[in-house]
Amino acid sequence: MSLLFSTPAKSAATGAPPPVEEVLVAISSGHDNNCGLNSLIHLWMALPDELFADLYQNFPIFQEIHREFCQTYGGGEPTLEKLMKFKKLALIDNPWDRELIWGNVFRAVLLRLAQADVQRSQSRAPDINYPIELAQYEFDESEMKYLFHGQCIDWKLLRLLTQEMGLHLTVYNQAAQIAGYQSPTFEYESLIQEFAPKCAKALWQADLFFNGNHYNFTYPDKSINAKHNQQREEKYSKIQQTAQKMLNSDATYLNLRENAMAIFKDKPKDYSPNAEEMEVYLQYHRYEAKILNLVTSAFVKNLLPKIAVDFVAKAKPQ
After folding, report:
1. 3-state DSSP of 62-103
2. Which parts of the chain fold into alpha helices (H)?
3. Per-residue pLDDT reduced to its tens digit, 140-165
4. From 68, 122, 155, 169, which residue has the greatest number of CB atoms within 10 Å?
5. Using CA atoms, how far apart are residues 239 and 261, in angstroms rounded to an integer?
6. How far apart are CA 36 and CA 59, in angstroms?
7. R_g (Cα) of the chain, nearest Å
């Protein structure tokens, strides 16, 4: 079977970025720092049904992901029929909802893969002939903190997941110039890494774009990117509006904002705050981000009963 993304796969082989006319990308949210996982989730859920089913039946990692999903939301034992029906629910038609539903499910599965990988590395006897291409991607127990504490997941960790998924992963370095959520444009600097799956031939492809602490991606059909970004922005605007209502009545936030804005009052546009002023400004932004995260978490909690009802009622075998 050929790769689902034929053009990017060819460019990955040469290290060249995708052609300029194809650089419309889809935005992943950074909620819980799951942006890399979210990118994979969107591509997975958008796969044609035949390929989606083939992956589920032939790559155990997808059944493990589904099992984690069932344990999180209910729905009994995982089956392909249940997941195929859930995949088509309107509930997960919005990018934000997909990310909030699946993001930490994927993170939990990746954590188990990483723990097993660390154990294998620690138990392996020293071997001077051990392939360098494998050794360079190993990590020690201290790096598990990225999974435990919800930090950004680097491609070395993503590789543990994607190599089990029949997926060819390509990661580009991204210098972003975003001109609106519906038509973001990007400059690509270089190919960072590409990882083949463990199976003999990849069945699908994921191109991710990394800017140092965040991943975005592209659908195989670039026209879907714009729709994805528009849906995401509409939902995010609702979350922001709710957060802003809370912030406008929060005395701590209003005080932090006033202090932060005072730093730049009557200053030239190119003014650079000193270390003390920068800390004041960062306190303001941290508090704002904290409230936004609380509101987003509330959206997740509101989704949970809907997931349980839809999963049990609509995904039950007829």
Report:
1. HHHHHHHHHHHHCCCCCCHHHHHHHHCCHHHCCHHHHHHHHH
2. 6-14, 35-45, 49-58, 60-73, 80-87, 95-123, 132-135, 145-148, 155-162, 223-248, 251-264, 275-314
3. 666 677 777 777 787 778 889 999 99
4. 169
5. 24
6. 20
7. 21
